[in-house]
Specification:
Elements: E1 7-12, E2 15-20, E3 32-45, E4 48-60, E5 65-73, H1 76-89, E6 92-93, E7 105-109, E8 112-118, E9 125-126, H2 129-138, E10 143-149, H3 153-166, H4 170-176
Parallel strand pairs: 9-10
Antiparallel strand pairs: 1-2, 3-4, 4-5, 5-6, 7-8, 8-10
Helix pairs in contact: 2-3
């Protein structure tokens, strides 16, 4: 499936969200969820401390569809279920070239920066933390990655998703370019 992807970053009152113009129906896919990170947040109030939890979930089918979600609640199970629902809502399609990505890409999201490079068959996934969870869920088998800048797990996961969103199919890019004239050919107009 070759399509054109238009992606926007939206700034709202609660920070930056990644938005894809393509809606993918999660009911048609066999998705598997992976919990990446749980954060305990303590707010000091006048009567004592108030605990909240945030969870980072990655969901994917291993065939080019992946999504991430962050959920916040007073209990861990509620935060996990919210994150899972958000991840299923934010699914994107990743263009694959065999078992790797079509080209190298470097993306910055907040203070987190991610570098993704295609790898030869048999190399495996050279990644750690949030990046590994996202690329495994997407179904990428061979990739070289490097996390630059901040090590915040949520921002690194969002930077990885943004990088996967910005990937282009080589055929799609070539179709947009002007045709190249081979040596010895003549161009006739009219």
């Amino acid at each position: 499936m070759i399509g054109i992807y238009i992606h926007i970053m939206e700034r709202g009152t609660k920070g930056v969200r990644l938005i894809s113009n393509r809606k993918i129906d999660p009911t048609e896919l066999a998705l598997s969820d992976k919990l990446v990170y749980i954060n305990r947040v303590t707010k000091v109030m006048m009567g004592g401390k108030r605990l909240n939890f945030s969870a980072l979930m990655v969901t994917g089918d291993g065939k080019g569809h992946v999504g991430i979600g962050v959920g916040k609640a007073n209990e861990v199970p509620a935060a996990i279920s919210k994150a899972s629902a958000m991840a299923r809502k934010n699914l994107i399609t990743v263009p694959l070239a065999g078992a790797t990505i079509p080209h190298e890409i470097r993306v910055k999201f907040g203070a987190a920066e991610v570098l993704l490079k295609p790898a030869s068959p048999g190399i495996g996934i050279i990644a750690g933390g949030s990046i590994r969870a996202v690329v495994e869920a997407a179904g990428i088998k061979d990739i070289l990655t490097k996390s630059l800048g901040s090590s915040n797990k949520v921002n690194v996961a969002k930077a990885t998703m943004l990088a996967l969103m910005r990937l282009r199919e080589p055929k799609e890019v070539l179709a947009k370019r002007k045709p190249v004239v081979e040596a010895g050919e003549t161009v006739t107009s009219g």
